[in-house]
Amino acid sequence: MANEAQRVLLMLKKLNSGNTISYEEEKYNNGMEKENSSEIISERTFQRGIERINEIFPEAIEKIPSKKSSYRALKKDILNNFLNKEGMSLLVQIFNIAQVNNIDLSKNFDISKDDEELLKRRIKNTSKCYDFRNKPFEENKQNMDCLSTLERAITYRKYLEIKYANSAKVYKINPYKILFLNENFYLASVIKEQHFEFSLFRISKIKDIKELSDTFQKRPEIENFISNIQTPFATFENGCDEKDLTEIKLEVCKRQAYHFKAKKFLKSQEIQELENGNIIVSYRLTQSLEIEELIKKWIPFVRILSPKSFKEKFAKDIEDLLSEKHFEKIQKNEQ
After folding, report:
1. How many Cβ atoms sit within 10 Å of the Cβ of residue 211?
2. CATH of region 2-73, choose from 1.10.10, 3.40.1130, 1.10.20, 1.10.3470
3. Distance from CA of residue 154 to its chain's centroid?
């Protein structure tokens, strides 16, 4: 028993040093610091040592797929601290999002083939707990190629020429940042020909893109505005200082207040609790259009408190939306 304990400690010592262990290397490990080549342990004895380590340190080591009876420690630095339970859950979600969109993220990890196989196995086991029903972004290989071009142009501040949606017009733009808003990728940019008009282009609708040799200087007020964008409907006017924003207040009934406390639906969200259990939720926005979609999702558990002009306009828009005339108007426009 003493020799077995000593043998397991020596195996742990090697693993802790970042070395691999295998039966071929350990069969002369008889529990002495100096290995004795005249005494060979059985493979079953070696496996019992592995079992002892797994009992004390669950999931600390894993078998190397490409080598017979070989093991290594799953040290955190190998997988960039993704092996704690919170990190592994996050990694699984990232990989699942990628797989749903036919993207192989493993190619982007600078790790050995064995580490890659171990990582995939852990993700496969954990991913059984998840099922992603909706695609986080639109599936289009052209989009991924477009993203690569955009990344390079943003990094080196290069002008771009793009064709957008069904328009034949070519836009010359300064690309600032790629934003992920409302489950879609957008390009935050400035259109050069339109007096530095800020625009958000939905990347899936960019049909053609060309990187130019000219470079540009980024404007601080545009970068500041981008850092505070909350929705794809944000508008840039005069730099959009805090004083230019509109404050919109909503009252949410007690029954649904938890959802707003648990999640910030928009970055500027602030909550004030009322004695009756209801809450007042306030947002500071560039225009009321930024909040309309959220309000519609929570009808009838939310009501608009202010501004009064927005409350009246929203009520009329909802009434028109539900009318037959509104449906007929849409059909007419589509013909």
Report:
1. 15
2. 1.10.10
3. 20
| Cβ atoms of residues 171 and 191 within 8 Å | yes
Q: How many CA atoms lie within 13 A of 221 on its CB side?
A: 11
CA distance 114 to 120: 10
Contact call for residues 46 and 24 (beta carbons, < 8 A)? no
Beta bridge partners of 175: 189
pTM score, two decimals?
A: 0.61
- For residue range 7-60, list pLDDT tens digits in order: 777 887 787 777 888 888 777 765 454 555 557 778 888 888 888 887 777 667
CA distance 84 to 89: 9
The highest-level CATH class for domain 141-234 is: mainly beta
Chain segment 101-118, per-residue pLDDT in tens: 555 555 555 556 666 676
Domain boundaries in the chain? 2-73, 85-129, 141-234, 245-321
